[in-house]
Amino acid sequence: MGLITGLLTLPLAPVRGTVWIAERVQEQAEEEYHDESAIRSALIELDAAREAGELDEEEVSAAEDALLERLMEIRGLAGEEDHGEVE
Hints:
Blueprint: H1 3-8, H2 13-33, H3 36-52, H4 57-84
């Protein structure tokens, strides 16, 4: 980037910084969403809540279904990535 271009685009620096931070936050959220260990932990917590009587069967079932769907999505994505690799 040249000196003149740098000076002319200087007012946009806060916007570029904000966009960069938003992209990092999105990446982190996607990593956490696709983390199998977090899903397993959530399933264990659901089971504990069921046994403690904190949640009824319908709530637990709905939450388990959502978590298992995420887990299958993750494993499906991992399977697609494996097929794309060249051996």
